[in-house]
């Protein structure tokens, strides 16, 4: 039972990391109608920005803010310089997917000579331990959960109660009608790329914080996780994740792998 409770606590932290990444990816797709396969590479790039700041002696929490800012600016520039010109030429949805995949590969290959292939980790990111029943989490893991909850509330408030949020929903529903009604859809799209880019960068840093180490290759894994959560729906994905953590904390294929090794 203690193992199940501990796994549940670990699942809460993992869900918080996935939530931040998935919400940004979902907003980006829902409003701009584009599947950005470079999302994971922006996440890992932001994680490295925080890493180098942390390595220079700056707190990882300031590094988290820097990662979010980097993700916002990087995503905005990607759209303005790369994606928007293709969209103006009438590139199809599948064509934009291919473009974003090419951008993803370019970012990974440009980043590799800079950061190297080996894994790195942040310094002093665990914090003290907090026990609640059988759940044992570090203070930083509690902070990650708190950041995720706060962001979900802020995004909900933005989309539901602000003028920008209403413009975002209108643009997502029918951009042509929204433009004809006087909504500056280009500015709305720019704001979306900035906001979702910040979420992307922040997600990259907290995902790296929640790992013992990370490397350039983790960018693809970040994308797959965010894409799966966005496609399945966050609640369903989180429910499956918790069920796996509780019922099979050793992994779905662990027993099969052990039998194959024994054979």
Please describe what this structure looks like.
- The chain has 263 residues and is mainly alpha-helical.
- It has a single domain (2-253), classed as ABC transporter involved in vitamin B12 uptake, BtuC.
- 77% of the residues lie in helices and 3% in strands.
- The longest helix is centred in the N-terminal third of the chain and has 31 residues, at 2-32.
- The protein is globular and about 55 Å long.
- Residues 250-263 have low confidence and may be disordered.
Mean pLDDT: 83
The third-level CATH topology is: ABC transporter involved in vitamin B12 uptake, BtuC
Catalogue the unreliable spans: 250-263
Number of strands: 2
The CATH class assignment is Mainly Alpha
What integer value in Å does the Rg equal? 19 Å
State the assembly state of the protein chains: single chain
What's the quick description here?
By secondary structure, the protein is mainly α. It has helices spanning 2-32, 39-55, 60-88, 93-115, 139-161, 163-173, 175-180, 185-209, 218-232, 234-247, 254-262; strands at 129-132, 135-138.
Give structural attributes.
263 residues; mainly alpha; two-stranded antiparallel ribbon; 2 strands; globular; disordered C terminus
Topology:
Blueprint: H1 2-32, H2 39-55, H3 60-88, H4 93-115, E1 129-132, E2 135-138, H5 139-161, H6 163-173, H7 175-180, H8 185-209, H9 218-232, H10 234-247, H11 254-262
Antiparallel strand pairs: 1-2
